[in-house]
Amino acid sequence: MSKASCSSKQTTGDLAWWQLSLIGIGCTIGIGFFLGSSLGIKLAGASIIFSFLVGAAGTYIVYSRLAKMTIQDPQEGSFCYYAGKAFGKWAGFSCGWNYWCSNILIMGSQLTALGLLSQFWFPDVPLWIFSAGYAVLSFFVVMLGTKGFDKMEDLFAIIKVAAIVMFIAIALGIYFGWIKGDGGSGGNMPNTIKEWMPLGLKGVWSSLIYAFYAYGGIEVIGLMAMQLKKKEDTLKAGTIMMFFLMILYVGSLGLAVSLAAFEKFNEKESPFVTALTNYDLSFFPHVFNGAIIIAGFSTMTAALFGVTTLLVTLAKDGDAPKLFQKKLQFRELPLPSLLLGVVGLAASVVCAFALPGKVFEYITTAAGLLLLYNWIFILLSSFKLEKKGKVLSVLGLLLLLLAISGTIVEKTVRNGFFISILFIALIGIVTLIMQRKWKKGGGKKLKYS
């Protein structure tokens, strides 16, 4: 994820629409796709490609509604601002904190994934040791406040896309018979319903959360749309971004599930590495694994920057203790805000120590769900604020509810649902307490104009 804020200040920018599309692709492609898609394949088998098509449709609806609100009323606070405008201060407050919590879980998911990927080379090293190492390294990168970090993000985005393109090129080489191995000279797409859906419709239903999670990042593009030269280009930028992502995701996953049996995929290895196991490509797993680790670490560190910045803004808006807006003279570093983000990372390390076998699955599911709860806020805000597109908003809500409910019916991902509900309950309790405080003290009013 990228840097985020929930301020209601209007700004102008100089980004072209195609630049926003590229930033969106860089923000979106991450561990959720490279490793999280394995969890989806375990549930849906080859039908994961249909889950990703449904995910693309639902994600595009959410983005299109957010883009319409941005065009009509450009605000730096984006979805947080629109939630407050539609339903009151409680909505903006809870939306901001839900987004902060979702990013903390996303960081935890990425941190755990980095540990799992590193075990590819060092299988005997405990997961929590890798997680702790990456957490400390990420903290020091943020502490240094490297000015060139944003530019490095562009390079990391190229690495992520190049890794997928490399897999697609190799997979096509296998199909055309240029590359041979124990798996034969070509792929084999499933021929029966059982091969397409090994666990039935319930498996496909439960896999939707991982498809939606892989598209997570569109709300960040809503925040960054304020930097466009022309705000009316917001929808075009998102449309191009979503089309490119859908082709990249569905195409690469379609090739992956045709090159390896359903039983071979697992959450400890990228599906793209699994797909090429039977072929004489000894270099690929190491190169691909390294590329994912580099990209995943950059995304996690950017997320740590993001939650730190977001908490500072929440504090300035009166939605978090004033302590969190304080900055050190050294590089203007918001140390209290950063340390709270680090506490979230530490919790992930503890989980990796206590639940090494299931932590990635649980945290990834919960992170995806919190992300979808924010998307529900976007659609509900659009339904109330926009005169047109109400049918589209309802359709989007149904798709999101379909993905959320899918985590309840499958016991292997149900714990992730309960974790997300715990977060929502805590945010809800704090919101109720704050509402009483706002009423008692006259409240700090948000200005919506």
Automatic annotation (TrEMBL):
Give the main location. membrane
A Pfam match is: AA_permease
- Gene Ontology BP, a term: amino acid transport
* Localization annotation: Cell membrane
Question: What InterPro entries does the database record attribute to this sequence?
Answer: AA-permease/SLC12A_dom
Q: PANTHER family, from UniProt? A: GABA PERMEASE (PTHR43495), GAMMA-AMINOBUTYRIC ACID PERMEASE (PTHR43495:SF5)
Transmembrane annotation, as ranges: 15-35, 41-63, 127-145, 157-179, 207-228, 240-262, 287-314, 335-356, 362-380, 392-409, 415-434
Any one GO cellular component localisation term in the record: plasma membrane
Taxonomic lineage from the root:
Bacteria, Bacillati, Bacillota, Bacilli, Bacillales
Q: Which domain of life is it from?
A: Bacteria
What is the protein name stated in its UniProt record?
Amino acid permease
> From what organism does this protein derive?
Sutcliffiella horikoshii
